[in-house]
Amino acid sequence: MSEAAVALPRPAGARVLTWLQNYGVYAAIGVLIVVNIGITPHFLSMENLRTQLVQVAPIVIVSLGMALVIGTEGVDLSVGSVMALATALLPLYLGYGVGPAILVALLGGVAVGLVNGSLVAFVRVQPIVATLALFVGGRGLALVLAGGQLKDVHNAALLDLGSSSVVGVPLPVVVAGALTLLVAGVVRRTTFGRQLVAIGGNRTASVLSGLPVRRVLLLVYVLSGLLAAVAGVLATARLQASDPSSLGLLMELSAITAVVVGGTPLTGGRVRVLGTVAGALLIQLVRATLIKHDLPDSVAQMVQAVIILAAVYAARGGAGR
Amino acid sequence: MTTEQAAADAPVIHDTYRPSGRDRAFGLIQRHGATAVLALLLAVGSLAFDRFPTGENLGDIAITSTFPAMVALGMTFVIITGGIDLSVGSVFALGGVLAAYAVRWGTPAALLVPLVVCGTIGLVQGLLIARVRLAPFIVTLAGLLGARGLLLSISHEGATTYLIPHGSALARLGQGRLLGLGYPVYLTLALFVVGAVLLQRTGFGQAVYAIGGAEDAAALMGVRVTRTKIIVYALSGTLAGLSGALNAARLSSGVTILGTGMELDVIAAVVIGGTLLTGGAGSVSGTIAGVLLLGVIQNLINQIGDLSSSYQQVVSGAFLAVVVVAQTYLSRARRM
């Protein structure tokens, strides 16, 4: 009975929670920026902004794919392993030129997405288990391909991807921004986007109303794999090395955090693309703030834990309307 | 109206619970498939490698499997209720660091401190999940970060590794052997027997299954849903802490980098053992088979000398995929 009482609408509180759910991320980012301008020296320097944005770019790219997957009431645990796979494939094919090497790395991500998507769409395995298999196996495969070694990357054209700029904006940031707009457009303006959200809302109803549920699900996991591979390529270019044993470790958790903090419910049926980007920025900003003030990583992790809980608590309140 | 509905519903319910020969066969494969494959692998391994069936090697498999097994026992309870616990890897590492830190106050403290702290972490997660009704995935994800943060702050950001003095009672507990098997192996076996009895023979076990099957229905039938869920997460945290403490005792130090990704390995073992992630079905004996299966695969790959350990991940991943696909088909075939 007490559970029922908890779920009853509480007008004023619920309204605050709903507002927090919708705009809390942006408000938190705003507060953090203002605080940082006040207390952190050199926070507004171009140098610092560039560093922060370049660091967050791969997380944003992976989170975009994760947001689509979570929108269908799924989850993709394999994204970190896909990054490892992409970074392991790159040096193997650099001999054929940068274009082919990047293409192969991206195809690796697509292949992983196809396996995940087939398991979820056709075999109807729960997403968390389906993607767990490639979480475990994908990094192993990457290590086998790379012979378990870290390789330095010397290819100038590839390194340019990590270091060059377009009108002063680092290329990884440009790519992340372009992909954000693209994914936001897909979610808001295309049939595919509507179908994706409908499936997340109610898969059975979507089947009954004739939506191509399996095709959409397959494509969503392929996109997630592809985006993770893009992040893997960009991260390799920035780090100037291919290290499949550590690249993308815990990336799945960072991406899920960004998506959830950004207001996309884990229960699917809604995708908030800009919120997701804001979620990734917020986490990066928190970490940067703590590190700049010599607060250790341990505190950063605990703060991140609190942020996640606060975000879902707000989401729960909004959902209980 | 209600009688009509009841009449219409009755045959369906009856259908679901009438085991035909085929259903029973599928059920057997689902529940004992891991055990069968384990037996097969042991036979193949014994025939193929002279060094595989030796007492020393099997003892090795037992002791390396024992720590994930303890964690997997708690995870089995959690997953049967339809939940998940992502925090166990961090809690495992935290348990080890706490044990190595607290050994200065004596062996009982070295065991008690990790059990209490890790049990409390589990309890808090259980409260957030059962009372505040937050998603288990998220709460335990936060727990993963929080426990790792706590561990880092105890170990001065991972810079300090606390040592367990050689010859102390705690070290003996982790390293001692009886009949070729390490002490922790016996403890794990005892815990699994207790776990099996708890799950199969008590009201608490019935409640765990009922909640995983249909939480609302269980609540309406008077099952104490909130209390059961809290206990389950507290249990998972406690077992992960205990496992970490004993592992630290075996290694003579509280290694800070352990347990990363362990949660997913443990979940894989539980799933391979026939426990459904959707909740409501599973067994403790299946879990032990799942953990041993992954341990044996790793050992066999080590036997094939020139293969790197990366292959173990590939094989485990492929194996998990096969098991999951098979399980999905089996459980659907049974339901039809």
Descriptive overview:
The complex is a heterodimer of chains A (321) and B (336). With 321 residues, chain A is mainly α. Chain A has helices spanning 2-7, 11-39, 46-71, 79-93, 98-121, 127-145, 156-163, 171-189, 191-201, 203-208, 213-239, 251-261, 273-292, 297-319, and strands at residues 151-152, 165-166, 169-170, 241-242. In chain A, the strands form two sheets. A two-stranded antiparallel ribbon of chain A has the order 1-4. In chain A, strand 2 and strand 3 (169-170) form a beta hairpin. In chain A, helix 2 packs antiparallel against helix 14, helix 3 packs across helix 12 (251-261) and helix 12 packs across helix 13. Chain A is globular, with a radius of gyration of 20 Å. With 336 residues, chain B is mostly helical. Helices cover 76% and strands 1% of the residues of chain B. Chain B has 14 helices and two strands, in the order H-H-H-H-H-H-H-E-E-H-H-H-H-H-H-H. Chain B has helices at residues 2-16, 21-48, 55-80, 88-102, 107-130, 136-154, 169-175, 183-201, 203-213, 215-220, 225-251, 262-272, 284-303, 310-335, and strands at residues 177-178, 181-182. Chain B has a two-stranded antiparallel sheet. In chain B, helix 7 (169-175) crosses helix 11, helix 12 crosses helix 13 (284-303) and helix 13 packs antiparallel against helix 14. Chain B starts with a helix and ends with a helix. The relative contact order of chain B is 0.18.
Which structural class is indicated by helix and strand composition of chain A? mainly alpha
Order of strands across the main sheet of chain A: 1-4
Query: How would you describe the shape of chain B?
Result: globular
First-residue to last-residue Cα separation of chain A: 18 Å
The chain-level structural class of chain B is mainly alpha
Strand content of chain B: under 5%
